[in-house]
Amino acid sequence: AQSVTQLGSHVSVSEGALVLLRCNYSSSVPPYLFWYVQYPNQGLQLLLKYTSAATLVKGINGFEAEFKKSETSFHLTKPSAHMSDAAEYFCAVSESDNNNDMRFGAGTRLTVKP
Amino acid sequence: DTGVSQDPRHKITKRGQNVTFRCDPISEHNRLYWYRQTLGQGPEFLTYFQNEAQLEKSRLLSDRFSAERPKGSFSTLEIQRTEQGDSAMYLCASSTRPYEQYFGPGTRLTVT
């Protein structure tokens, strides 16, 4: 079955610094990959998705992620962190169009220091 | 587009009681998903509906759990004889096309 590993349960960056959140996946077929963000006491919001088109995916709020098949990775980056980026980030993998088999990572909590 | 709504937002119940949660998907979204999220973990898939048909159930969904989606609109998730291990955030999501699930704010269940 497919799975996701997020390296680092907590990441802290200074405002204006590069954000890098790591995600490695395991899948027996070409995967669909997602990054979601969750703010306290709220549901998840889709940041971006990879669905076998361009390997560099741009999302909302200035985030982007690159699908690297050789490294089975889908790391999330943002060139310059903003205080409002502080949240929990989840990487997820699916092997079906219906995404009824979505598997989420344990999450990475991003802290942004002033 | 008013988003996915869930009711109640919080529920505290005593062990052994039954609870029911409601999810109202975005209008016209034919796909509906339920997830459970425990503290410090990502969401875990519970079940999936396409219109009114329940097409997928996780083995996490024990006999005490049941979900319905009559008429293919709102959905309910019922937990019978609640246990302390059921304490979690229950999330609902809906979509109308692949790869884009819209999540509701969740129902936080606390079993005492």
Write the layout of secondary structure elements.
The complex is a heterodimer of chains A (114) and B (112).
Chain A: E1 3-7, E2 10-14, E3 19-26, E4 32-38, E5 44-50, E6 56-58, E7 64-68, E8 73-78, E9 87-94, E10 103-104, E11 108-113
Parallel strand pairs in A: 2-11
Antiparallel strand pairs in A: 1-3, 3-8, 4-5, 4-9, 6-7, 7-8, 9-10, 9-11
Chain B: E1 5-7, E2 10-13, E3 19-24, E4 31-37, E5 44-50, E6 53-57, E7 65-68, E8 75-79, E9 88-95, E10 102-103, E11 107-111
Parallel strand pairs in B: 2-11
Antiparallel strand pairs in B: 1-3, 3-8, 4-5, 4-9, 5-6, 7-8, 9-10, 9-11
What does this structure look like?
The complex is a heterodimer of chains A (114) and B (112). Chain A has 114 residues and is an all-beta fold. Chain A is 0% helix and 54% strand. Chain A contains no helices and eleven strands. Chain A has strands spanning 3-7, 10-14, 19-26, 32-38, 44-50, 56-58, 64-68, 73-78, 87-94, 103-104, 108-113. In chain A, the strands form two sheets. In chain A, strands 2, 4, 5, 9, 10 and 11 form a six-stranded mixed beta sheet that branches. Chain A has a five-stranded antiparallel beta sheet with strand order 1-3-8-7-6, with no helix packed on it. Chain B has 112 residues and is mostly beta strands. Chain B is 0% helix and 50% strand. Chain B is built from no helices and eleven strands. Chain B has strands at 5-7, 10-13, 19-24, 31-37, 44-50, 53-57, 65-68, 75-79, 88-95, 102-103, 107-111. The radius of gyration of chain B is 13 Å and the shape is globular. The interface between A and B is medium-sized, with 27 and 25 residues.
